[in-house]
Known about the structure:
Structural class: alpha+beta
Strand order of the largest sheet: 1-2-3-4
Strand content: 25-35%
CATH superfamily: Gcn5-related N-acetyltransferase (GNAT)
Radius of gyration: 14 Å
Shape: globular
Amino acid sequence: xxxxxxxxxxxxxxxAIADVHLAxxxxxxxxxxxxxxxxxxxxxxxxxxxxxIWVAEIGDRVVGYARFTRxxxxxxxxxxxxxxxxxxLALLDVVKARHPDGFGLWVFTSNLPARDFYGAQGxxxxxxxxxxxxxxxxxxxxxxxxx
Length: 147
């Protein structure tokens, strides 16, 4: 992973971030998005200047990203072609460094690989829901990194 570069995202990264987002969600054991791909692309592009977004690059290719606020990790996705290469861990380390006092995230109950990943990195499951409050209406779990 010597050629991995982590950097703040810029608006020109939006199409590549959306590609990673859509591919990773499609490959993960989680409910399908309730939004058309074009809407996801538009929405992610609108998050620049609102959320903090970092990308992981190999060469000139975005292979993962993290999108977060002061209190929440909203997205952490890695291109499925680069899964299990330490990219997710590197991005999570950025989020931890940027928010050393802790943060929360939501993960679908069905997404066991993500739950295991976050648990192994010190995040703790705090709340289990039936999913009635999320768009997918699928059971989820609020996890926290206490900092």
